[in-house]
Specification:
Proline racemase; Pro_racemase_fam; 5 helices; Diaminopimelate Epimerase, Chain A, domain 1; globular; 4-hydroxyproline epimerase activity; 2 domains
């Protein structure tokens, strides 16, 4: 054994989407400017990011978060993800805030309002917290728009999603049809990539009732999002021009959203779950020390 580095994390999931919050690592960031720090994290620390995200310690669905002090907010948050996944994740804001509260690293505020500084600006979350349990999380979306052509929706002025209705040849978004759904998603991803479209995901939609839908989201490398998807839920709410929506995934988990005063208020039906508090080590003699990904 030749152990040279140690990493500490809090692992969580938000309705099935996994987040790894780094609490100790060799990542050194000295700037007080969060945009500069995010750019440095994007361009450097490749080995650290691979160790924390890749198998055997992680997997393709793992998302990384790194907290920093902030002069303007309760804390700053940086993001790192696999190629093919949107760097910014609203779920990361929620996962980190709730995890820091539940582990005693963030003060419980009487009004439940927290500000998080990111490279896209400051976001505010309202957390309903009672007797050690987070009951509800509300977040206001900044800038979402529907593009008239071809069912495109843009979240936060940047993340682009293409929405498709469930084709007749697929009976439902259910586990019984997973192979067919995966094939459909792979074909659509290849089609958009061949056309050089810039996008973050494809959302396949099955209408259950008036304001209830089941969706499957494919990221731009074909990976299937395990959560119903906060972005997907907001995109569907805007595209369908609804006031309220409940979005289910293939496993039956759901996210509810409602629109108020020309903004989006996102309410999680299920709370964030902490799955582990972990320490990882790097053995320089390990031939797979940087990990690997099998898609």
């Amino acid at each position: 054994m030749n152990l040279t580095k140690m990493y500490s994390t809090i692992d969580t999931h938000v309705d099935g989407e996994a987040f790894r919050i780094v609490t100790h690592s060799p990542i050194g960031l000295t700037s007080t400017n969060i945009v500069e720090n995010q750019n440095k994290l994007n361009q450097s620390f490749t080995q650290v990011k691979e160790i924390l995200l890749n198998e055997p310690r992680g997997h393709r669905g793992m998302n990384g978060c790194l907290t920093l002090p902030s002069n303007h907010s309760d804390f700053g948050l940086l993001f790192f993800t696999h190629n093919g996944s949107a760097t910014f994740k609203i779920g990361a804001l929620i996962a980190t805030t709730v995890s820091l509260i539940e582990t005693g690293n963030l003060e419980v505020k009487p009004n439940g309002k927290y500000k998080i500084e990111t490279y896209l600006g400051v976001y505010q979350l309202e957390v309903e917290f009672n007797r050690g349990t987070v009951l509800r999380v509300l977040i206001e979306n900044k800038d979402t728009e529907k593009l008239v052509q071809d069912n495109w929706v843009v979240i936060d002025g940047g993340r682009r999603y293409r929405i498709f209705s469930l084709p007749e040849e697929i009976p439902a978004i259910e586990m019984d049809y997973l192979t067919t759904l995966k094939r459909w998603g792979k074909d659509k991803v290849n089609e958009l990539n061949l056309n050089h479209e810039k996008y973050d995901g494809i959302i396949l939609v099955e209408n259950k009732n008036l304001d209830e839908y089941r969706t499957m989201t494919f990221e731009n490398d074909g990976h299937i999002l395990r959560s119903p998807g906060i972005d997907s839920t907001m995109a569907l709410l805007i595209q369908k021009d609804l006031l309220n929506i409940t979005n289910y995934n293939i496993f039956g988990n759901s996210i509810s959203a409602k629109k108020q005063h020309n903004s989006l208020e996102i309410e999680l039906k299920n709370k964030v779950f902490i799955t582990s508090v972990s320490e990882f080590v790097l053995d320089e003699d390990d031939p797979l020390r940087n990990g690997f990904i099998i898609k």
